[in-house]
Amino acid sequence: MTRILIADDHHVVRTGLRAVLEAQPGLEVVGEVGNGEEAVEAAVRLKPDLVILDYAMPVHNGVEATREIRKQLPRTEVLIFTLHDSQEVIEDVLSVGARGYLLKSDANDHLIAAVRALARHEAYISGRVSAELLDTLLDRRRQGKQDPLTPRERRVVQLIAEGRSNRDVCGQLGVSLKTVETHRAAAMRKLGLHNTADLVRYAIKNRIVEV
Amino acid sequence: MTRILIADDHHVVRTGLRAVLEAQPGLEVVGEVGNGEEAVEAAVRLKPDLVILDYAMPVHNGVEATREIRKQLPRTEVLIFTLHDSQEVIEDVLSVGARGYLLKSDANDHLIAAVRALARHEAYISGRVSAELLDTLLDRRRQGKQDPLTPRERRVVQLIAEGRSNRDVCGQLGVSLKTVETHRAAAMRKLGLHNTADLVRYAIKNRIVEV
DNA sequence: CGAATTTTCAGGGTTTCGCCCGATGGTCAG
DNA sequence: CTGACCATCGGGCGAAACCCTGAAAATTCG
Hints:
2 copies of one chain form a homodimer.
Chain A: E1 2-7, H1 11-22, E2 27-33, H2 36-46, E3 50-54, H3 62-72, E4 77-82, H4 87-95, E5 100-103, H5 107-119, E6 124-125, H6 134-143, H7 151-161, H8 166-173, H9 177-191, H10 196-205
Parallel strand pairs in A: 1-2, 1-3, 3-4, 4-5, 5-6
Helix pairs in contact in A: 2-3, 7-9, 7-10, 8-9
Chain A binds a DNA duplex (30 and 30 nucleotides) through helix 7 and helix 9.
InterPro entries (chains A, B): CheY-like_superfamily, NreC/VraR/RcsB-like_REC, Sig_transdc_resp-reg_C-effctor, Sig_transdc_resp-reg_receiver, Tscrpt_reg_LuxR_C, WalR-like
GO molecular function, one term (chains A, B): DNA binding
Keywords (chains A, B): DNA-binding, Phosphoprotein, Transcription, Transcription regulation
């Protein structure tokens, strides 16, 4: 029996996932949550075999939740469930320990296959990137050359681009105002940007936030 | 018995909607389609009482599908089901004949209420806009229809979103700094925005600037 | 382990933003 | 003519953004 935790901020999506999964023998949905923070908490408590995580969630996003879950529960697999087909997103989530990546538009055909693969601890990638390229991607990421922002900087940029002030962000992330300023300044220096407007355009261009 | 047609490009969402709706007495899902063109075709064929349309669909989007369905089937109500809470989207879809607007994040609490209201041919709006403002919105659209910014304000917003500071803009336009600040403030007040990041996202969303 | 990177935080400064208040002309419709 | 918008400008003020320097934990990785 494969025990599954579902994390998605839209109730209707959770209902749909649950309906599809529970129609399958050997699969059991043990919990449903609506954001990344709850996902981590529920995962630790329920110790599921598999967590299905929406990439774009409030409070904690999919990447942060993945990192935390994989850290605390190495035997629990993570399947990222997302709207957008982006190579950067794939590299992002794979690098923090997810082994599954499923587009919402592919859910119909590939959800069960993805879940079965993850249950066997095999990678499953839908979208533009095939599983064959997985190692290449990860190799390239290890060597360097990827996007210049550290995860923390990227997270700060995301929140800024969503319209939060530095003060909001420091509350959200639980760090001091000075730390947020440092990350923001580091990101802008690396990217050669000098104001909020440029930073927001960068974030949109690189799909760190939606428009 | 209220007969319902579901149109959403994500199978999992359709499944979730169907599960929620069919748990209710008096509601029947008579069809599921995955894009706007199929929605029009299926609506004409099935003549449902209500069509639930995803706003963002391939082939035909929600607005086009709504226009066509309302034209061919005046007694069929349309409920727009969308991810984003945007006043412009609301005005858009209401102006082509939809009488329901439901955020996906509100689906859990309000889906049934929305469907029941539409079945009685009453408007139902979730999100930032209350039903009380509905007439005002539609009135304003009938009269003027265009975006709320004056040409000068729009020009200032464009330059800001391109990354210029107020000081840069005043040099560019040959007016005083105070004038630029006034236009910027007026634009933000009209749009209900409170910082640069929100202004830039607005400008991109409304194609005032490119990303 | 040890080096490199990341993350955290601070002081102290200038500039810009965001938001009040007010005002003067110009244009255009009723 | 008389409001209505619109574009132009100003004073003032607190908050936020921006920029520099420095530095100590924590993490990662060879």
